[in-house]
Amino acid sequence: MHRRPRGGGDHRDPGLVGLLRGRRRLVRGCGQGLAPRCPRSQPRRPWGGERPGRPVDGDGSAGSPPGVARGVGDGDRRPRRRESGEAGRADLRWPGRRPRDGCPPVHLGQRPRREQARERPGSTRAAHRTSRGGRRVTRSAAEIGAGLAQAREARPIRLGERIHVVGAAGAGASAAALHAAWAGAVVTACDAGGPSPYTAAFAEAGLELLTGHAAAHVTTTPPPDRLAVTKALTAIAPDHPELQAARAAGIPIEPWQQVVADAAYGKRLVAVAGTHGKSTTAGWLLAAVPHASAFVGALLPSVVGAPSTAIHRADAKRFVVEADEYAGNFDPYRPSIAVLTSVEWDHPDVFADELAVRDAFDAWIRRSAWHDGHRPVLVANIGDRGARLVAEQLSGWEGGVLATQVLDEDASPGPAIAAARERYRTGGGPAEAIVATITALDPGGTTLEIFGLPRAGDPLVVRLATAGRHNAANALTVIGVASLLGGDPVQVARGVGRFRGVGRRLERKGEAAGVVVYDDYGHHPTAISVTIAAVRQREPGRRVWAVYEPLTFHRTAALLEDFAVALATADAVAVADIWAGRDTDTTVASSAALAEAVARRRPGIPHGAPGSVEATADWLAGQVAAGDVVLVMGGGQSYRIGERLLAALSKR
């Protein structure tokens, strides 16, 4: 196949010239010209390098010392949000360009997009506040975490500190228990369901998992110094016996993320956030960045050779965490390097719409911290629309941006890099940019040509063992982080190329009777779409069954039509009963309604809603044929479908 030459190109392409002219018009429009405080007139400081000196905050005082987290407003000259109301946030929206320091909001005759969305009759903002049945599905983060201590700056875990972890068999809470024990704490742990695959490392760490919940776990002598819980527990079970006992005894109750943040104290923190790709990207970083401790929200057998979500290195100077946005779960993390993979509307029980999601990521990124003289940096996948919009509004932030993007086939790397450097400029100076083009998508993996990577020739060719364009974007962010940490490009490329994924992310479970079964955690329409596409890349020419166990009723109700569109890209569909999770209202959606919506989108597609995960597996065993691929997706008990189906097929 003929391929045109890559790279090169005039950096002052028409699009960039227009962008620069637009900037000049905006500056003239405010009547101040290039004022001395305008970032354009200041000498550039290295966005990822040594700190030239302690910064001066807006009040003239010296900034926080290295390694100490800075507040949202510390040294931050961005336009301030008013304390209440959507109108107070509207002036942060600039059509085409970001506001400059010292310039009043000028909208060039166009009202802010926030006002337009709010005032338009039948707007998505209004629609997203209710479910299909007209019920309100959005709660505040305060309601979700009622009774928990507020997020704070990390502090070291004391030797002998007593920490009790509730729900410790979960992916995150188990990691908190392990990291606390490795840091020298005396840890007790319990879970209503007993052991899980995530607790396999407990015995080696000297931990015992108690089955069930009881006040006696808290009223010990001596009592715990603090409890660590899943934030949603306080809303789901306000009368939980251990929470009640802790409150009666005056014992602080914190989200388990605070324990993980404390375990990372003093290390350079790399936090991976985003609607999709967090676990894969965080796990991938461990393959590219050696000698790092970590919490990753998935099993890591291909990375560390054992099922665990927690990694401990005694000599680690870096700590990688997966940072979840739900109800402020990521607030305890003050990263030196923040990674943003993607931003979409999700968690409709907390976020009214995508704007609310972007606001949450924006506020969290601005709390990133200097570390050992290094300016905080955001590594943003600007190929994703939501992540791009978040990065665009960081003009007043003191940190820097490293933009990564997998380009379309007809895009030239040179102009794309030049445009990104200006478009994502912050108070720390112009952005840096790394882009890639995909030269091969085949059953064996994906090949990338990478441009703009420091200390590497253009292009650097990387062969990935993973499938899917979305994984190419994840890999590029990993390479960007590794470059910030000083990794050798060739060694980084080798590490990235060896990575084969984390547990339940397009994980091949086996083959029986000519049927191949994959398991995946995908539970959002976008994740479902890209995973089906990746399976088609991996298994070309086969009939693809999409088998989905919806995760939570409120998400299914709010995104039902989007789920239908995504599932209809498969050749056949089965929808299991909805996993309620933290839901209390189970009347707003049903698996049968989702299956019917798929059939409306694609008439004639084989489909069904058989019931429980067990019933779904049994039904599938009578439907599939040799040559089929079954892709099981979901976040509850869906992994049991593949196991049961393979067992049934092996008896044929």
Summed up:
The protein is α/β, with parallel strands linked by helices and about 650 residues long. The protein has 4 domains: about 90-120, no CATH class; about 145-250, NAD(P)-binding Rossmann-like Domain (Rossmann fold, 3-Layer(aba) Sandwich); about 265-500, Mur-like, catalytic domain (UDP-N-acetylmuramoyl-L-alanine:D-glutamate ligase), CATH 3.40.1190; about 505-650, Mur ligase, C-terminal domain (Protein-Tyrosine Phosphatase, Chain A), CATH 3.90.190.
Tell me what the structure shows.
There is one protein chain. With 652 residues, the protein is of the alpha/beta class. The protein folds into four domains: 91-122, no CATH class; 144-252, NAD(P)-binding Rossmann-like Domain (Rossmann fold); 266-498, UDP-N-acetylmuramoyl-L-alanine:D-glutamate ligase, CATH 3.40.1190.10; 507-649, Protein-Tyrosine Phosphatase, Chain A, CATH 3.90.190. 31% of the residues lie in helices and 17% in strands. The chain is built from 22 helices and 21 strands. Strands 8-7-9-6-10-11-12-13-14-15 form a ten-stranded mixed sheet, sandwiched between helices. A six-stranded mixed sheet has the order 16-17-21-18-19-20, with helices on both faces. Strand 11 (377-381), helix 13 (385-392) and strand 12 form a beta-alpha-beta unit. Helix 6 runs parallel beside helix 9, helix 15 (469-484) packs antiparallel against helix 16 and helix 21 (613-621) runs parallel beside helix 22. The chain starts with 13 loop residues before the first helix and ends with a helix. Residues 1-135 have low confidence and may be disordered.
